[in-house]
């Protein structure tokens, strides 16, 4: 609750001062009439006399309520209008067999990449985000959407073996650009996660990058994998699960050229912590423009106090002049 005219509350002490002066004045009064019959004193000590003593307090209460009503108390309901200029984002995720390497803990590269992608999505509630996956070729796992709960469920469903093994980086870029090209958003972004070099598909990465630049799509490639050999799990029919060394395969030079061509930036993630930091940095680079406008809807309640106060004041005046009238 607030007051439209809070300065009126400065008058609150006035009714209390008037009550004090009135009570002090009446205590100084001497009896103005003698009782010819002492039986009349019984009525002076009855209910009427006690009610008569209450009248000054009633008037004080009325004046207090009127002062508060004059200050115009009101209850406000805050209204918030949020308008945002969302960013259209496609995440292109490599699901080739090399993403099984376990240099990213607590699990393999693909598992960590999916978890970091979901955290990135959670931090951008107003953006349309889609998912493209690729190996020997590419397909759309989720079209651009603001239903991020469904999107995260579709990310969880991505797994090895959905596509034949290979790394078609150019096809993944072309697929992502195709999803973004007809959207009305002023900012279009493709985040490309891969741990290898292009070895499949009918479109090479350089041509796909030129297409992205023409369509005004910025690409942020992320090279995933340690600089050294990584432990890679192999299922042996005789010995069971064992690990072999997987050499580093990230084509840093090609991914850097893709970023430079499209106005993006290339990142290298050598562990899970680095990948988390990279996603947060991209989140900071591609900020969604949000405008907030707030206002208050006020409901005046002063009249709810003024009317009872006036009725009480009228009642006090009528009773003081009639049934509760005091002798001079």
Explain what this protein looks like in three dimensions:
By secondary structure, the chain is an alpha/beta fold. The chain has 2 domains: 2-77 and 295-321, no CATH class; 87-287, Rossmann fold (3-Layer(aba) Sandwich). Helices cover 41% and strands 25% of the residues. It has 10 helices and 11 strands. The protein has helices at 13-28, 41-44, 47-70, 109-122, 148-157, 169-180, 205-214, 252-262, 272-285, 302-321; strands at 2-3, 73-85, 88-94, 128-134, 138-145, 188-194, 217-224, 230-236, 240-246, 267-269, 289-300. It has a 6-stranded mixed beta sheet, with helices on both faces. Strands 1-2-11 form a 3-stranded antiparallel beta sheet. A two-stranded antiparallel sheet has the order 8-9. Helix 3 packs antiparallel against helix 10 and helix 6 packs parallel to helix 7 (205-214). It is elongated and about 110 Å long. The mean pLDDT is 81.
Short structural summary:
The chain has 10 helices and 11 strands. It is α/β, with parallel strands linked by helices.
Features:
328 residues, alpha/beta, Rossmann fold, six-stranded mixed beta sheet, three-stranded antiparallel beta sheet, 10 helices, elongated
Corresponding CATH superfamily of the largest domain: von Willebrand factor, type A domain
Would you count the extended β strands for me? 11
What is the end-to-end distance?
A: 45 Å
Proper CATH architecture of the largest domain: 3-Layer(aba) Sandwich
Largest sheet: 6 strands, mixed
Portion in beta strands: 15-25%
> Which structural class should the secondary elements be placed in?
alpha/beta
Low-confidence stretches: none
